[in-house]
Amino acid sequence: MDESELPRVLQQMWGIEGRSRPGPKPAFHISDIARAAIKLADTGGLPAVSMSKVAAELGFTTMSLYRYVDAKDDLYVVMLEHAFGVPPTLDPADDWRGKITAWAEAFRDGLRRHPWILQIPVQEPPLSPNQLAWMEAGLAAFDGTPLTPGERLSAMLLVNIYVRGAAQLSVNMLTDPAAVRAADQLYTERLKYLATADRFPGIAATLQQPPDEGYAGDFDTGEFTFGLTTVLDGIEARITRQTP
Questions:
Q1: CB 112 within 8 A of CB 177
Q2: What pLDDT, on the 0 to 100 scale, is given for residue 29?
């Protein structure tokens, strides 16, 4: 394929000229659009983002945006590219578990900073520069393991899916840590009252355990770590089976 077959928004993000469009010289950069849209989303959530509102934030007309993005989906591509930024630099001294853990935690932190990301439909694999850099970093975490390239991709996607799922469950509780702790405590107390041993023995047994062994009332931190560790244990079991 040639550059003309790439969507115009990708041509801009990759610095590919592509076919020029008629009209005056562009007055701002695609990154300016990203910053304006992200500011709106961080303040009012994804519903606050529209072509007209982004244009107003930039001080231009809505029609001027169409010299950069063809549709709202293109705007989302630009927002994701700049919201996540570049991936973390993984410590070469770490083993694969340490590297993919650092990658997963950085991904989680990006979702915490911009929870509206979870509202953007995932319609196709990433193709923008930073998004591909994140993918490459996740794959590189498995360097030195016997996993095939395809298995590394599957392992990275498994971690990605876990992080997104865990973040989705806690996204509404991230704005106020004190409120989160209070909500967790209230939920635990209500659960103890309702989940009696005769009706829900499994739940009751969990609640009777010490905090470090049972439900700790800390989903966003404790449960995230437990889940990620369990996912990595499964990947490690596969690696162990394939190690000569």
A1: no
A2: 87
Q: How much is the pTM?
A: 0.83
One-letter amino acid at 159 equals: V
Half-sphere exposure of 11 (CA within 13 A, CB side): 17
CA dihedral (77, 83, 86, 87) positive or negative: negative
Check if the beta carbon of residue 25 is closer than 8 Å to that of residue 40: no
Any residues with CB less than 8 A from the CB of 118 and at least 6 apart, and which? 111, 164, 167, 168, 171
Where do the domains of the chain lie, and which CATH numbers do they carry?
3-84 (1.10.10.60), 96-175+209-242 (1.10.357.10)
Q: How far is CA 162 from CA 66, 140, 165, 237, in A?
A: 36, 19, 5, 18
Q: Tell me, what's the pLDDT at 216?
A: 47
List phi, psi (to 5°) of 179.
-65, -35
Which regions in the chain score pLDDT beneath 70? 1-4, 17-27, 172-177, 179-180, 210-221
Long-range residue pairs from 157-165, CB within 8 A, at least 24 positions apart, any chain: 158/231, 158/235, 159/100, 159/103, 159/104, 159/228, 159/231, 159/232, 159/235, 160/107, 162/104, 162/227, 162/228, 162/231, 163/104, 163/107, 163/108, 163/111, 163/228, 164/111, 164/118
Reading phi first (left if > 0) and then psi (alpha if -120 to 50, else beta), residue 202 is in alpha
Selection from 102, 84, 77 nearest residue 92 by Cα? 102
Signed CA dihedral, 146, 150, 153, 157: sign only: negative
